[in-house]
Design a protein that fits this description.
Length: about 70
């Protein structure tokens, strides 16, 4: 794996359920054989809401799964 150098601007396309979100980001970490870390720079308000709802749904699923194991 050859990650981008720190500071590289990228356009990310994230699949969140049925939605494809477009996010502009900069690389903030770069580790050979591991990959990159990104800082989101620009995201449309409706994409931000969709991403937030998607992450909330995942967190609720994880909480429910953890509660079932205890």
């Amino acid at each position: 794996m050859y990650p981008y150098p720190v500071g590289t601007g990228v356009e990310l396309k994230l699949q969140a359920g049925e939605e494809t979100l477009i996010i502009l980001a900069n690389t903030v970490t770069s580790f050979p054989q591991v990959g990159n870390g990104f800082q989101f720079v620009k995201i449309l308000p409706e994409d931000r809401e969709e991403l937030s709802a998607f992450l909330d749904a995942i967190a609720k699923q994880q909480e429910a799964a953890a509660a079932g194991r205890i």
